[in-house]
Amino acid sequence: MQTRLAEWIRATPEGEEADSILRRCVHCGFCLATCPTYNLLGDELDSPRGRIYLMKQMLEGAPVTQRTQLHLDRCLTCRACETTCPSGVEYGKLVDIGRAIVEKKVARSPWDRLRRAFLARTLPSRALFGAAVALGRAVRPLLPAPLARRIPARREAGAWPAARHDRRMIALAGCVQPSLAPSINAAAARVLDRLGISLVEIAEAGCCGAVTFHLNYQDDALGYVKANIDAWWPHVEAGAEAIVVTASGCGTMVKDYGHLLRGDPAYAERAARISALARDVSEVVAAERERIASLPRAAGGPEAVAFQSPCSLQHGLRIQGVVEAILRDAGFRLTPVPDAHLCCGSAGTYSLLQPQISRRLLADKVRALESGAPQVIATANIGCLTQVESGTRLPVVHWIELLDVKLRDPGTGS
C-alpha cells in the first residue's frame, strides 16, 4: 500500500512505524474471513482492511471523525487478522497508534470519558478491584440472574509450595486475577513445584499495563510496565529463569515490553530482557514433557474437555496446539470446537464497552464449546474464563487447574 503521511506525523517514531506497517498491506482481503466483527456486522469498515483504510486516511491528513473512532472502538484487537495475513501486517501495533491519535482528535461524550476513566483506575488496582468484587459477591443473591452470572464465585487458592528448588521463576500476579481466581497461579506453582521449579510472586509487581494501554491511557500503562521491570529486575539478576504468565492477555503485553520501551534509554535494555524471559505457563510445562510423563496420575475427575483458546494465546503469542497436547498427554479427551479461531467477546474491557457485540460473540462461542458435549471448559486467560463462565452452566477453569488436579499424588493428594 502506497502512503504519503501528513507532515504532523511523518518524522515521528509512531509515523515511521505506521508507514512501515501500512506499506505491507496489499488489500488481499484474507483478513475479512477471520474478523469477528466483520462476520457479525457485515460492514467492511468493521474489518481490518476497512480500519486500515480509515487509519491511512487519517495519517495522510484527512479529517478525523467520530466514524473513525466508532470503527476502531469496535475492533476487539483479537489479532486473528495477523494470523491469516500473508504479508505479515502487524495490525495490532497499527491500531494502537491509530487509537491514540483518534483519542486526541475526537472528543468523547462525558459518559464515555467517565466510564473509561473509571475502568482505567479501578481494574489495575488490586485493592479497588478486590473491594468491588467482594461487594458484588455479597449482593449477588439479590441480583437478576443475567447480572449475577457476571460475578464469579469465590475460588480458593489452596496451598502455595515453599520456594525450595534451585530453579526459580517469577509469576506475574496481575491485577484482576488475584481477586477473581487466585487458584490459577497457585495451581501453576504446585504443578511447577512437582517439576522441580519454584514459582514466586513479587509483591511490588502489579498490573501488566494492558488494560490501561488499550483504553488509550498509554502513558499510565507505561508506568505500570516500568514498575514491573523495576520489581522483577533484582530477581532476574539473581538468576530467575523466566517471567511466567498464566493469563495469555497479560503475556502478550509483557512480550511487548521491549517494543513499547525501545526508545527509552533508561529502560530499553531491561525491557527487552524481560520480554525475552516472558513465558506463557504452557511453554514452561511443555518443555518438561518427559518429566510430566513420569509423574503419577490421580483417578477420577472430568475426562471430556473443551479448550477455548484465547485470541491472545493463539494470535497474540502465536501458541497453537501446545495446551491441547499437554491436556491429551495428561489423559483428557478434547472435544471439537468449531471456529476455534474466533473471539469469545471478552477482549479486556470490550465486554463492558461494547456489550451488544460482546454478547453475540459469547453466544456463538458457548454454542461451539458446548457442541461436543464436554464435562468442563478450559481456557488460558482470566478474561475469557469469566466471559465464558457467564454464558454457560458448565464449569469453566484454567487448564493449569485441570493439570494440577490430575498430577496430584493419588497417595497423598498433594
Your description of this structure?
By secondary structure, this protein is of the alpha/beta class. Among the domains are: 99 residues, Alpha-helical ferredoxin (Fumarate Reductase Iron-sulfur Protein, Chain B, domain 2); 109 residues, Rossmann fold. It is 52% helix and 7% strand. The protein is built from 25 helices and eight strands. A four-stranded parallel sheet has the order 2-1-3-4. Strands 6-5-7-8 form a four-stranded parallel sheet, with helices on both faces. Strand 7, helix 24 and strand 8 form a beta-alpha-beta unit. It is globular, with a radius of gyration of 21 Å. The relative contact order is 0.10.
Largest sheet: 4 strands, parallel
Q: Based on the coordinates given, report the CATH architecture of the domain at 298-406.
A: 3-Layer(aba) Sandwich
Shape: globular
| Beta-strand segment tally | 8
| Spatial ordering of strands, largest sheet | 2-1-3-4
List the helices and strands and how they pair.
Blueprint: H1 7-10, H2 13-24, H3 36-41, H4 48-59, H5 66-73, H6 80-84, H7 91-105, H8 110-122, H9 126-139, H10 145-148, E1 167-171, H11 177-180, H12 183-194, E2 197-201, H13 210-214, H14 218-237, E3 243-245, H15 248-255, H16 257-260, H17 268-277, E4 278-280, H18 281-286, H19 289-293, E5 304-307, H20 311-316, H21 322-329, E6 333-334, H22 350-353, H23 355-370, E7 376-379, H24 382-389, E8 396-398, H25 399-406
Parallel strand pairs: 1-2, 1-3, 3-4, 5-6, 5-7, 7-8
Helix pairs in contact: 2-7, 4-7, 5-7, 12-25
